[in-house]
Design brief:
The protein is mainly alpha-helical. The chain folds into 3 domains: about 20-160, Butyryl-CoA Dehydrogenase, subunit A, domain 3 (Up-down Bundle); about 180-325 and about 450-605, Orthogonal Bundle (Neurolysin, domain 3); about 330-450, 3-Layer(aba) Sandwich (Collagenase (Catalytic Domain)), CATH 3.40.390. About 65% of the residues lie in helices and about 0% in strands. The protein is built from 25 helices and 5 strands. The protein has helices spanning about 40-50, 55-60, 65-95, 100-120, 125-130, 135-140, 150-155, 165-175, 175-195, 210-215, 225-240, 240-260, 265-275, 280-290, 295-305, 330-340, 345-360, 395-415, 425-445, 450-485, 495-510, 535-555, 555-570, 575-580, 590-615, and strands spanning about 200, 205-210, 360-365, 375, 385. Strands 3-5-4 form a 3-stranded mixed beta sheet, covered by helices on one side. A two-stranded antiparallel ribbon has the order 1-2. It is globular. It starts with about 35 loop residues before the first helix and ends with a helix. About 35% of the residues are buried. Its cofactor is Zn(2+). Has oligopeptidase activity and degrades a variety of small bioactive peptides. Its EC number is 3.4.24.-. Keywords: Hydrolase, Metal-binding, Metalloprotease, Protease, Zinc. GO terms for molecular function: metal ion binding; metalloendopeptidase activity.
C-alpha cells in the first residue's frame, strides 16, 4: 500500500485554503464539457424557456392518436433532458464556490425553471391513465415506435387502480402544503428553533451544542465529555417531546390517509408500489436482521471490553475503539490503489475509472467557499462528475471508490440505455458505491500486513455495517410499527413513542448496553421518519452490495458479468428484477444471510487481531 507517515506540518488550517482561482486546473472538474461558456448556458436556458409554450398544444392533443401520444412523450422527455443538463451545470458551478453570486443566481434560475417544466408536462401521466384498452391496442398498432417506451408506460399504468378522478386528484394536490406542514414544522423546529445548552469539550472550553457539535463530541475519548454532551443534548428534546410527537403523529396520519384514499392496503404498500418493490422485501429484511442481532450484541460487548468500561452507555457507541492509523495517502497514490482494488471488475470498468482520472471528472481539493462533503452527479448528456474535498487519509480513499461506484454506474447506464431509462431509482443507487467499498476492503485486507492498520480497516467495516444494516433496519422497524399503530387507532403520544423506542433500542443493542432514559427520545430527532418508508433501502442496499462483492471475489467473471447487467440496466426494468439478473433475489433471505456471514467472518478476525495487539 502506498501510505506515507502523516506529519503534523502537512495539516492545513482553514484559513490557508486556496481561493477557487488558486486551485490547479488539473484538480478541478471540467464543466466546459457541458457548456463551453456561461453565455452558452444562458442561451440554452432561454431556448428551453421558450419551448414551454408548446405544452398547451400537446396537452390538448395527447390522446388524439398513437403518433400524438408519441410526440407528446418525446416533447416532455426532451424538456426534462435539457433541464437536467442546465441544472447540473448551474448546481456544480455553485457548489465549487458558494460565495460566487453569479452562480448562486444561475442556480436559483434553474430551480425556478424546473418548477415550470414540471407544471408544463403534468398533463402526461393522467392522459396515459385515461386511455382505454381499445385505444392502447389501436395506438400500438398504428405507432410501433411506442414499443420503445413500453416499460415507461407500464410504470405509469401500475398506478391505474390507485388514481382518483381528475377533480379528486386536483383537490388532494392542492392540499399538498397541508399534508407537508408537519414535516416542514419538524424541520424548522429541529434545525432552527430548538435551543441547546453548552458543554465542556476535551480541552475544557465551553461549546454551544448543535447537531454537528453533538456528533463530534460523542466521538470524544473522554467519557465525561460524552456523557455531558449526551444528557445536555437530549434535555432540549425532552422539553419538546409532546411537540415532536404531534408533528410525527400528524405526518404518519397523512401517509395513512393518502394510502387509503388511493385504495392501497397500507402506507407502506403505497410507498413501495412506486418502484414495484414487494412488501416481502421489507419484511424479510426486518426478520433476518432480528435473527442476526446476536452478532450485533457480540460486537457491542466487544466495544465495551475494548473501551474498558464497567457500563457501556448509548453515548459510548461512537467513540473510536481504535486510534486513527498514523498514515496518510495522497490523491495520486489513492488513484493507483483504487485501480488495484477495482481490478476484479475488469479492464472495461477500469477504463471508465481512468477516464474519470484523466478527463477531469473529479473536483479534488477543498477551496474557500466550496461545498463540503462528497458526491457523484451529472445528467444523461454530461460526464458523471464527482465532488471531493480531499484529505490525505484512509477515509478519503474509501470516499473516492464510493463515489467512483456511483459515477461508473451512471456512465454504464447512460451508455447502454435510451434517455427514458437512463437513470436508476434510489433503491439501486447505493449498491454500486458500496460494492466498490467492499472490494476495497477485500483488497486492503489482502495487501496490508500491519496488524494495527488491518484492525482499523476491519473496525471501519464493522462500524459501517452496524450503522447501516442494523441501525437503519431498527429505524425501518419503528417506522412500520408507527404506521400500524396509527392505522389501528392507537394515539402516538410521546409516552407511547418513548416506551416503544426504548424497548426496540435495547432489543437491538443487547445486554451489554446499559439503558439510558434519554435514548427513548431519539425518535424525536430522526428526519427519516418523515420520508415515507425510505430508510430501509440503506439496509437492503448495503446487504446486497456485500453479497455481490463476495460473489465477484469468489466466482470471478460469471459474477462480474451478472453484476454489469445491473450497472447497465438503469430503469429499463423494475429494481427487483434488475437485482435478480445481477444474482441477488431480494425477496428471499439468502443475500442477507450472505451479508451476515461476511460480518461474522470479519468480526472473528477483528477479535483475533485485537487480542494479538493487546498481548504486545
Amino acid at each position: 500500500m502506498r501510505f506515507e507517515r502523516l506529519k503534523k506540518e502537512r495539516v492545513k488550517m482553514a484559513n490557508t485554503l486556496p481561493t477557487r482561482d488558486e486551485v490547479p486546473t488539473s484538480q478541478t472538474w471540467d464543466l466546459s464539457t457541458i457548456y463551453p461558456t456561461d453565455a452558452a448556458w444562458e442561451a440554452a436556458f432561454a431556448d428551453l424557456s421558450d419551448r414551454l409554450d408548446g405544452a398547451t398544444y400537446f396537452a390538448e392533443h395527447v390522446t388524439d392518436s398513437g403518433a400524438a401520444l408519441l410526440q407528446a412523450l418525446q416533447y416532455g422527455l426532451g424538456l426534462m433532458r435539457d433541464l437536467e443538463t442546465l441544472y447540473v451545470y448551474a448546481s456544480m458551478k455553485n457548489d465549487q464556490d458558494t460565495t460566487n453570486s453569479q452562480y448562486q443566481g444561475m442556480f436559483d434560475q434553474v430551480q425556478g425553471l424546473a418548477a415550470r417544466v414540471s407544471s408544463a408536462i403534468a398533463f402526461f401521466d393522467p392522459a396515459v391513465l385515461s386511455l382505454t384498452d381499445a385505444q392502447w391496442h389501436e395506438f400500438k398498432a398504428t405507432t410501433p415506435e411506442l414499443a420503445d417506451y413500453q416499460h415507461y408506460f407500464d410504470a405509469i399504468l401500475t398506478q391505474k387502480g390507485h388514481v382518483l378522478s381528475a377533480d379528486q386528484e386536483s383537490l388532494l394536490a392542492a392540499a399538498g402544503d397541508v399534508f407537508g406542514a408537519s414535516e416542514k414544522t419538524f424541520s424548522i423546529l429541529d434545525n432552527a428553533d430548538i435551543k441547546f445548552g453548552t458543554v465542556k469539550n476535551d480541552v475544557g472550553e465551553t461549546e454551544q451544542l448543535s447537531n454537528g457539535v453533538y456528533a463530534r463530541l460523542l466521538e470524544s475519548t473522554n467519557p465525561s465529555v460524552r456523557k455531558e454532551t449526551f444528557q445536555t443534548f437530549y434535555k432540549s428534546y425532552i422539553a419538546l417531546e409532546n411537540t415532536f410527537a404531534s408533528t410525527l403523529s400528524s405526518h404518519i396520519k397523512g401517509h395513512n390517509f393518502m394510502a387509503q384514499a388511493h385504495h392501497y392496503d397500507s402506507a407502506r404498500q403505497a410507498s413501495l408500489a412506486a418502484n414495484q418493490v414487494p412488501e416481502v422485501v421489507y419484511d424479510t429484511l426486518v426478520e433476518q436482521v432480528n435473527q442476526a442481532l446476536p452478532l450485533l450484541h457480540r460486537y457491542v460487548a466487544l466495544r465495551k471490553r475494548l473501551l474498558g468500561l464497567q457500563e457501556l452507555h448509548s453515548y459510548d457507541l461512537y467513540t473510536p475503539i481504535l486510534g486513527e492509523p498514523d498514515y496518510a495517502i495522497d490523491f495520486e497514490s489513492a488513484k493507483a490503489e483504487a485501480l488495484e482494488a477495482l481490478a476484479p471488475l475488469g479492464e472495461d470498468y477500469l477504463d471508465i475509472v481512468n477516464q474519470a482520472f484523466d478527463s477531469r471528472w473529479i473536483d479534488v481539493v477543498e477551496n474557500q467557499g466550496k461545498r463540503s462533503g462528497a458526491y457523484s452527479g451529472g445528467a444523461y448528456d454530461t460526464n458523471p462528475f464527482m465532488l471531493l474535498n480531499w484529505v490525505d487519509n484512509l477515509n478519503n480513499l474509501y470516499t473516492l471508490v464510493h463515489e467512483m461506484g456511483h459515477s461508473a454506474h451512471s456512465y454504464l447506464t447512460r451508455h447502454n440505455q435510451p434517455y427514458q431509462y437512463g437513470d436508476y431509482p434510489i433503491f439501486l443507487a447505493e449498491i454500486a458505491s458500496t460494492t466498490n467499498e467492499n472490494l476495497l476492503t477485500d483488497y486492503l485486507l489482502k495487501t496490508v500486513d500491519d496488524k494495527a492498520l488491518r484492525a482499523y480497516i476491519l473496525n471501519q467495516y464493522l462500524d459501517g455495517f452496524k450503522g447501516t444494516v442494523f441501525r437503519q433496519t431498527q429505524f425501518a422497524e419503528f417506522e412500520q410499527w408507527m404506521h400500524q399503530q396509527d392505522a389501528a387507532g392507537v394515539p402516538l403520544t410521546a409516552e407511547v413513542l418513548d416506551q416503544a423506542y426504548a424497548d426496540l433500542n435495547q432489543r437491538y443493542y443487547g445486554e451489554a448496553l446499559t439503558p439510558d432514559p434519554e435514548i427513548a427520545h431519539e425518535w424525536e430527532r430522526i428526519p427519516h421518519f418523515y420520508y415515507n418508508f425510505y430508510v430501509f433501502q440503506y439496509s437492503t442496499g448495503f446487504a446486497a452490495a456485500t453479497a455481490l462483492s463476495d460473489q465477484i471475489i469468489q466466482e470471478g467473471q460469471p459474477a462480474v458479468d451478472r453484476y454489469k447487467t445491473y450497472l447497465k440496466a438503469g430503469s429499463s426494468a423494475y429494481p427487483i428484477d434488475v437485482m435478480k439478473q445481477a444474482g441477488v433475489d431480494m425477496t428471499k433471505p439468502d443475500y442477507l444471510q450472505e451479508a451476515f456471514a461476511t460480518f461474522e467472518q470479519r468480526l472473528n478476525e477483528f477479535e483475533e487481531l485485537v487480542q494479538e495487539l493487546e498481548q504486545k
